[in-house]
Amino acid sequence: MLRPLADQEIRKPAGRTIMDYLNISVFSVHDPSDTSFCYDSINGSCQRILRTLDVKIFMIFTMAVTVLVTVTGNLLVILSIAHFKQLHTPTNHLILSLAMCDLLLGIFVMPPSAVRSVHGCWYFADVTCKLHTGMDIMLSTASIFHLMCVSAERFCAVCSPLTYRSRVRSATVLCMVSASWIVSAVFAYTIVFSELNLKGAEDFYNSQIRCMGGCHVFFSRGSAVVTSMVSFFIPGLIMFGIYSRIYFVARGQARSIDFLTNQLRMASHRPGEFRYRTRKGTMTLAVVVGVFLICWTPFFLCNILDPFIDFSIPPALIDALVWFGYLNSALNPFIYAFLYPWFRKALHIIISGAVFNRNSCRIQLYS
Questions:
Q1: This prediction's pTM
Q2: Torsion angle of the four alpha carbons 71, 72, 74, 79, in this order, in degrees rounded to the nearest 10
Q3: Closest Cα to residue 105, out of 79, 67, 73, 69?
Q4: Which residues of 68-107 are buried (b: 16+ CB within 10 A; e: fewer)?
Q5: Cα–Cα distance between 63 and 320 in angstroms, integer?
Q6: What's the rounded Cα separation, in Å, for the pair 150 and 142?
Q7: CATH class of the domain whose range is 18-362
Q8: Around Cβ 36, how many Cβ atoms within 10 Å?
Q9: CA-to-CA dists, residue 317 to 47, 303, 314, angstroms
Q10: How far apart are CA 253 and CA 225, in angstroms?
Q11: What tens digit of pLDDT does each residue of 61-117 get?
Protein backbone atom coordinates (compact mmCIF):
# COMPACT_ATOMS: atom_id res chain seq x y z
CA MET A 1 0.00 0.00 0.00
CA LEU A 2 1.48 3.26 -1.08
CA ARG A 3 -0.10 5.75 1.26
CA PRO A 4 -1.39 4.59 4.68
CA LEU A 5 -3.07 7.64 6.12
CA ALA A 6 -4.32 7.95 9.66
CA ASP A 7 -7.75 9.44 10.27
CA GLN A 8 -6.18 12.28 12.19
CA GLU A 9 -4.19 13.46 9.17
CA ILE A 10 -4.78 17.15 8.68
CA ARG A 11 -6.51 18.58 5.66
CA LYS A 12 -7.25 22.24 4.95
CA PRO A 13 -10.34 22.80 2.81
CA ALA A 14 -11.65 26.29 2.31
CA GLY A 15 -13.73 27.70 5.14
CA ARG A 16 -12.34 25.45 7.88
CA THR A 17 -9.36 25.74 10.13
CA ILE A 18 -6.92 22.89 10.59
CA MET A 19 -8.22 22.12 14.08
CA ASP A 20 -11.80 22.09 12.84
CA TYR A 21 -10.98 19.54 10.20
CA LEU A 22 -9.31 17.25 12.73
CA ASN A 23 -12.76 16.53 14.13
CA ILE A 24 -14.21 15.47 10.78
CA SER A 25 -14.56 11.74 10.14
CA VAL A 26 -17.39 9.49 9.14
CA PHE A 27 -16.64 7.39 12.22
CA SER A 28 -15.90 10.19 14.69
CA VAL A 29 -17.93 11.90 17.39
CA HIS A 30 -18.64 15.46 16.33
CA ASP A 31 -19.04 17.06 19.74
CA PRO A 32 -16.31 19.77 19.76
CA SER A 33 -16.15 19.63 23.56
CA ASP A 34 -14.83 16.06 23.37
CA THR A 35 -11.18 16.72 22.65
CA SER A 36 -8.44 14.20 23.23
CA PHE A 37 -4.85 13.95 22.11
CA CYS A 38 -2.57 11.02 21.45
CA TYR A 39 -0.19 12.31 24.13
CA ASP A 40 -1.90 14.74 26.50
CA SER A 41 1.36 15.76 28.20
CA ILE A 42 3.25 16.61 25.01
CA ASN A 43 2.88 19.84 23.09
CA GLY A 44 2.21 19.38 19.39
CA SER A 45 0.54 16.03 19.86
CA CYS A 46 -1.86 14.76 17.21
CA GLN A 47 -5.54 14.81 18.09
CA ARG A 48 -7.12 11.42 18.70
CA ILE A 49 -10.24 10.49 16.75
CA LEU A 50 -13.06 9.79 19.19
CA ARG A 51 -15.40 6.97 18.20
CA THR A 52 -18.40 5.31 19.80
CA LEU A 53 -17.93 1.86 21.34
CA ASP A 54 -20.14 0.24 18.68
CA VAL A 55 -18.01 1.68 15.88
CA LYS A 56 -14.80 0.53 17.56
CA ILE A 57 -16.14 -3.00 18.01
CA PHE A 58 -17.25 -3.12 14.37
CA MET A 59 -13.88 -1.88 13.11
CA ILE A 60 -11.88 -4.22 15.34
CA PHE A 61 -13.99 -7.23 14.35
CA THR A 62 -13.80 -6.47 10.61
CA MET A 63 -10.07 -5.85 10.63
CA ALA A 64 -9.36 -8.89 12.82
CA VAL A 65 -11.28 -11.15 10.43
CA THR A 66 -9.39 -9.67 7.47
CA VAL A 67 -6.03 -10.29 9.15
CA LEU A 68 -6.98 -13.84 10.21
CA VAL A 69 -8.25 -14.82 6.75
CA THR A 70 -5.20 -13.27 5.07
CA VAL A 71 -2.69 -15.09 7.26
CA THR A 72 -4.48 -18.45 7.29
CA GLY A 73 -5.37 -18.54 3.60
CA ASN A 74 -1.97 -17.54 2.28
CA LEU A 75 -0.20 -19.85 4.72
CA LEU A 76 -2.22 -22.74 3.27
CA VAL A 77 -1.26 -21.68 -0.27
CA ILE A 78 2.43 -21.61 0.71
CA LEU A 79 2.26 -25.01 2.43
CA SER A 80 0.45 -26.57 -0.53
CA ILE A 81 2.89 -25.42 -3.18
CA ALA A 82 5.97 -26.02 -1.04
CA HIS A 83 4.96 -29.53 0.08
CA PHE A 84 3.60 -31.23 -3.05
CA LYS A 85 6.29 -31.89 -5.65
CA GLN A 86 3.79 -31.91 -8.49
CA LEU A 87 3.11 -28.24 -7.83
CA HIS A 88 6.75 -27.21 -8.27
CA THR A 89 6.18 -25.41 -11.57
CA PRO A 90 7.29 -21.92 -12.71
CA THR A 91 3.76 -20.54 -12.41
CA ASN A 92 3.28 -21.93 -8.90
CA HIS A 93 6.67 -20.64 -7.75
CA LEU A 94 5.52 -17.15 -8.69
CA ILE A 95 2.22 -17.75 -6.88
CA LEU A 96 4.19 -18.97 -3.85
CA SER A 97 6.20 -15.76 -3.72
CA LEU A 98 3.03 -13.69 -4.22
CA ALA A 99 1.39 -15.54 -1.31
CA MET A 100 4.45 -14.71 0.79
CA CYS A 101 3.86 -11.01 0.04
CA ASP A 102 0.27 -11.32 1.23
CA LEU A 103 1.29 -13.32 4.31
CA LEU A 104 3.86 -10.71 5.39
CA LEU A 105 1.27 -7.99 4.82
CA GLY A 106 -1.15 -9.79 7.12
CA ILE A 107 1.45 -10.36 9.86
CA PHE A 108 3.50 -7.17 9.94
CA VAL A 109 1.47 -4.44 8.22
CA MET A 110 -2.24 -4.97 8.88
CA PRO A 111 -2.17 -5.20 12.73
CA PRO A 112 -0.34 -1.87 13.30
CA SER A 113 -2.50 -0.27 10.61
CA ALA A 114 -5.59 -1.53 12.43
CA VAL A 115 -4.45 0.09 15.69
CA ARG A 116 -3.86 3.36 13.86
CA SER A 117 -7.22 3.21 12.08
CA VAL A 118 -9.19 2.51 15.26
CA HIS A 119 -7.47 4.97 17.59
CA GLY A 120 -6.24 7.55 15.09
CA CYS A 121 -2.80 7.51 16.71
CA TRP A 122 0.56 5.80 16.22
CA TYR A 123 1.78 4.57 19.61
CA PHE A 124 5.04 3.07 18.39
CA ALA A 125 8.44 4.66 17.80
CA ASP A 126 9.09 6.94 14.83
CA VAL A 127 11.59 4.50 13.35
CA THR A 128 8.92 1.80 13.62
CA CYS A 129 6.59 4.04 11.63
CA LYS A 130 9.16 4.31 8.85
CA LEU A 131 9.83 0.58 8.85
CA HIS A 132 6.10 -0.16 8.79
CA THR A 133 5.45 2.32 5.99
CA GLY A 134 8.41 1.04 3.99
CA MET A 135 7.20 -2.54 4.30
CA ASP A 136 3.69 -1.47 3.33
CA ILE A 137 4.91 0.20 0.15
CA MET A 138 7.36 -2.60 -0.57
CA LEU A 139 4.79 -5.41 -0.32
CA SER A 140 2.17 -3.68 -2.45
CA THR A 141 4.78 -2.86 -5.09
CA ALA A 142 6.21 -6.38 -4.96
CA SER A 143 2.70 -7.83 -5.37
CA ILE A 144 2.04 -6.02 -8.61
CA PHE A 145 5.56 -6.81 -9.87
CA HIS A 146 4.89 -10.49 -9.16
CA LEU A 147 1.62 -10.29 -11.07
CA MET A 148 3.44 -8.66 -13.96
CA CYS A 149 5.93 -11.56 -13.97
CA VAL A 150 3.02 -14.03 -13.88
CA SER A 151 1.52 -12.25 -16.89
CA ALA A 152 4.80 -12.58 -18.80
CA GLU A 153 5.06 -16.27 -17.88
CA ARG A 154 1.47 -16.89 -19.06
CA PHE A 155 2.22 -15.05 -22.30
CA CYS A 156 5.08 -17.47 -23.02
CA ALA A 157 2.94 -20.49 -22.08
CA VAL A 158 -0.01 -19.53 -24.31
CA CYS A 159 1.59 -17.65 -27.18
CA SER A 160 4.86 -19.62 -27.50
CA PRO A 161 4.09 -23.11 -26.14
CA LEU A 162 6.81 -24.83 -28.21
CA THR A 163 9.60 -22.68 -26.76
CA TYR A 164 8.06 -22.28 -23.29
CA ARG A 165 10.25 -24.82 -21.51
CA SER A 166 13.43 -23.35 -22.95
CA ARG A 167 12.45 -19.79 -22.05
CA VAL A 168 10.88 -20.23 -18.63
CA ARG A 169 13.21 -22.25 -16.42
CA SER A 170 13.84 -22.31 -12.68
CA ALA A 171 16.66 -19.79 -13.07
CA THR A 172 14.34 -17.47 -15.01
CA VAL A 173 11.69 -17.61 -12.30
CA LEU A 174 14.32 -17.06 -9.60
CA CYS A 175 15.51 -13.91 -11.40
CA MET A 176 11.91 -12.66 -11.68
CA VAL A 177 11.18 -13.25 -8.00
CA SER A 178 14.48 -11.74 -6.83
CA ALA A 179 14.06 -8.65 -9.00
CA SER A 180 10.50 -8.13 -7.75
CA TRP A 181 11.58 -8.21 -4.10
CA ILE A 182 14.84 -6.26 -4.44
CA VAL A 183 13.52 -3.47 -6.67
CA SER A 184 10.43 -3.04 -4.48
CA ALA A 185 12.47 -2.91 -1.26
CA VAL A 186 14.98 -0.39 -2.62
CA PHE A 187 12.20 1.75 -4.08
CA ALA A 188 10.08 1.75 -0.92
CA TYR A 189 12.73 2.33 1.73
CA THR A 190 14.55 4.94 -0.36
CA ILE A 191 11.37 7.00 -0.55
CA VAL A 192 10.62 6.63 3.17
CA PHE A 193 14.05 7.23 4.71
CA SER A 194 15.25 9.89 2.25
CA GLU A 195 11.90 11.73 2.50
CA LEU A 196 11.73 12.18 -1.27
CA ASN A 197 7.95 12.15 -0.86
CA LEU A 198 8.16 15.63 0.73
CA LYS A 199 10.19 17.23 -2.04
CA GLY A 200 8.65 20.54 -3.01
CA ALA A 201 6.19 20.66 -0.09
CA GLU A 202 8.39 20.50 3.00
CA ASP A 203 7.09 23.72 4.53
CA PHE A 204 3.46 22.70 4.18
CA TYR A 205 4.13 19.29 5.70
CA ASN A 206 6.06 20.67 8.69
CA SER A 207 3.49 23.36 9.45
CA GLN A 208 0.23 21.55 8.71
CA ILE A 209 0.78 17.79 8.90
CA ARG A 210 3.58 16.79 11.25
CA CYS A 211 2.59 16.13 14.88
CA MET A 212 3.52 13.79 17.73
CA GLY A 213 1.70 10.46 17.70
CA GLY A 214 1.06 10.38 13.98
CA CYS A 215 2.43 8.14 11.24
CA HIS A 216 1.74 10.18 8.12
CA VAL A 217 2.91 9.42 4.61
CA PHE A 218 2.60 12.68 2.78
CA PHE A 219 3.21 13.01 -0.97
CA SER A 220 3.80 16.22 -2.85
CA ARG A 221 2.42 16.52 -6.35
CA GLY A 222 5.52 15.30 -8.16
CA SER A 223 6.23 12.41 -5.82
CA ALA A 224 2.59 11.29 -5.85
CA VAL A 225 2.65 11.04 -9.64
CA VAL A 226 5.99 9.24 -9.82
CA THR A 227 5.30 6.72 -7.06
CA SER A 228 1.77 5.95 -8.23
CA MET A 229 2.93 5.41 -11.80
CA VAL A 230 5.86 3.17 -10.81
CA SER A 231 4.01 1.18 -8.14
CA PHE A 232 0.67 0.72 -9.86
CA PHE A 233 -0.37 2.37 -13.10
CA ILE A 234 2.53 1.40 -15.39
CA PRO A 235 2.64 -2.28 -14.25
CA GLY A 236 -1.17 -2.37 -14.40
CA LEU A 237 -1.21 -1.14 -18.01
CA ILE A 238 1.51 -3.64 -18.95
CA MET A 239 -0.52 -6.51 -17.47
CA PHE A 240 -3.68 -5.34 -19.22
CA GLY A 241 -1.82 -5.25 -22.53
CA ILE A 242 -0.30 -8.72 -22.00
CA TYR A 243 -3.61 -10.37 -21.13
CA SER A 244 -5.32 -8.63 -24.02
CA ARG A 245 -2.68 -10.04 -26.34
CA ILE A 246 -3.06 -13.49 -24.77
CA TYR A 247 -6.82 -13.36 -25.33
CA PHE A 248 -6.58 -12.52 -29.01
CA VAL A 249 -3.79 -15.03 -29.69
CA ALA A 250 -5.65 -17.81 -27.86
CA ARG A 251 -8.83 -16.95 -29.74
CA GLY A 252 -7.04 -17.06 -33.07
CA GLN A 253 -5.37 -20.38 -32.33
CA ALA A 254 -8.41 -22.07 -30.79
CA ARG A 255 -9.59 -23.82 -33.94
CA SER A 256 -6.19 -25.18 -34.90
CA ILE A 257 -5.52 -26.38 -31.36
CA ASP A 258 -8.90 -28.11 -31.18
CA PHE A 259 -8.22 -29.80 -34.52
CA LEU A 260 -4.80 -31.02 -33.34
CA THR A 261 -6.25 -32.22 -30.06
CA ASN A 262 -8.95 -34.22 -31.83
CA GLN A 263 -6.36 -35.84 -34.08
CA LEU A 264 -4.24 -36.91 -31.11
CA ARG A 265 -7.07 -37.90 -28.82
CA MET A 266 -7.08 -41.50 -30.02
CA ALA A 267 -3.41 -41.88 -29.11
CA SER A 268 -3.21 -39.91 -25.88
CA HIS A 269 -5.30 -37.66 -23.66
CA ARG A 270 -2.34 -35.59 -22.50
CA PRO A 271 -2.36 -32.90 -25.27
CA GLY A 272 -5.99 -32.04 -24.53
CA GLU A 273 -5.42 -32.12 -20.79
CA PHE A 274 -2.34 -29.95 -21.09
CA ARG A 275 -4.23 -27.43 -23.22
CA TYR A 276 -7.08 -27.38 -20.70
CA ARG A 277 -4.76 -26.83 -17.74
CA THR A 278 -2.89 -24.07 -19.57
CA ARG A 279 -6.07 -22.18 -20.45
CA LYS A 280 -7.58 -22.80 -17.02
CA GLY A 281 -4.45 -21.54 -15.29
CA THR A 282 -4.30 -18.46 -17.49
CA MET A 283 -7.95 -17.65 -16.79
CA THR A 284 -7.43 -18.06 -13.03
CA LEU A 285 -4.39 -15.79 -12.97
CA ALA A 286 -6.24 -13.23 -15.10
CA VAL A 287 -8.95 -13.21 -12.41
CA VAL A 288 -6.26 -12.71 -9.75
CA VAL A 289 -4.87 -9.73 -11.67
CA GLY A 290 -8.35 -8.31 -12.21
CA VAL A 291 -9.25 -8.53 -8.52
CA PHE A 292 -5.96 -6.85 -7.60
CA LEU A 293 -6.65 -3.95 -9.96
CA ILE A 294 -10.23 -3.58 -8.70
CA CYS A 295 -9.14 -3.52 -5.05
CA TRP A 296 -6.27 -1.04 -5.44
CA THR A 297 -7.36 1.28 -8.27
CA PRO A 298 -9.67 3.48 -6.09
CA PHE A 299 -6.91 4.12 -3.57
CA PHE A 300 -4.23 4.94 -6.15
CA LEU A 301 -6.59 7.26 -8.01
CA CYS A 302 -7.20 9.15 -4.77
CA ASN A 303 -3.49 9.07 -3.95
CA ILE A 304 -2.50 10.68 -7.23
CA LEU A 305 -5.44 13.12 -7.27
CA ASP A 306 -5.33 14.33 -3.65
CA PRO A 307 -2.28 16.66 -3.89
CA PHE A 308 -3.82 18.44 -6.88
CA ILE A 309 -7.06 19.27 -5.03
CA ASP A 310 -5.33 20.66 -1.92
CA PHE A 311 -5.60 17.39 0.06
CA SER A 312 -9.35 17.73 0.37
CA ILE A 313 -10.24 14.01 0.19
CA PRO A 314 -11.50 12.97 3.66
CA PRO A 315 -8.92 10.93 5.61
CA ALA A 316 -11.61 8.44 6.63
CA LEU A 317 -12.31 7.70 2.95
CA ILE A 318 -8.63 7.13 2.19
CA ASP A 319 -8.30 4.87 5.22
CA ALA A 320 -11.30 2.85 4.03
CA LEU A 321 -9.77 2.53 0.55
CA VAL A 322 -6.52 1.33 2.11
CA TRP A 323 -8.36 -1.52 3.82
CA PHE A 324 -10.26 -2.26 0.62
CA GLY A 325 -6.85 -2.73 -0.97
CA TYR A 326 -5.71 -4.93 1.93
CA LEU A 327 -8.78 -7.09 1.28
CA ASN A 328 -7.14 -8.27 -1.93
CA SER A 329 -4.58 -10.24 0.10
CA ALA A 330 -7.41 -12.13 1.80
CA LEU A 331 -9.28 -12.82 -1.46
CA ASN A 332 -6.47 -14.50 -3.42
CA PRO A 333 -6.64 -17.87 -1.57
CA PHE A 334 -10.41 -17.98 -2.17
CA ILE A 335 -9.81 -17.42 -5.89
CA TYR A 336 -7.35 -20.32 -5.96
CA ALA A 337 -9.73 -22.55 -3.99
CA PHE A 338 -12.65 -21.71 -6.29
CA LEU A 339 -10.83 -22.08 -9.62
CA TYR A 340 -7.99 -24.55 -8.94
CA PRO A 341 -9.10 -28.17 -8.31
CA TRP A 342 -5.57 -29.10 -7.25
CA PHE A 343 -5.64 -26.47 -4.52
CA ARG A 344 -8.92 -27.80 -3.14
CA LYS A 345 -7.45 -31.31 -3.07
CA ALA A 346 -4.28 -30.04 -1.40
CA LEU A 347 -6.35 -28.24 1.25
CA HIS A 348 -8.28 -31.42 1.98
CA ILE A 349 -5.05 -33.37 2.43
CA ILE A 350 -3.53 -30.72 4.71
CA ILE A 351 -6.63 -30.17 6.85
CA SER A 352 -7.32 -33.92 7.21
CA GLY A 353 -3.80 -34.53 8.46
CA ALA A 354 -2.90 -36.85 5.58
CA VAL A 355 -0.07 -34.48 4.78
CA PHE A 356 1.92 -36.09 7.62
CA ASN A 357 1.80 -39.52 5.95
CA ARG A 358 4.97 -40.88 4.42
CA ASN A 359 5.56 -39.78 0.83
CA SER A 360 2.51 -37.49 0.94
CA CYS A 361 4.54 -34.96 -1.00
CA ARG A 362 4.34 -37.26 -4.03
CA ILE A 363 0.54 -37.43 -4.11
CA GLN A 364 -0.79 -36.66 -7.59
CA LEU A 365 -3.17 -33.71 -7.33
CA TYR A 366 -4.01 -33.87 -11.02
CA SER A 367 -3.31 -36.40 -13.76
A1: 0.82
A2: 130
A3: 67
A4: ebbbebbbbbbbbbebbebbeebbbbbbbbbbbbbbbbbe
A5: 11
A6: 12
A7: mainly alpha
A8: 12
A9: 18, 11, 5
A10: 40
A11: 999 999 999 999 999 999 999 999 999 998 899 999 999 999 999 999 999 999 989
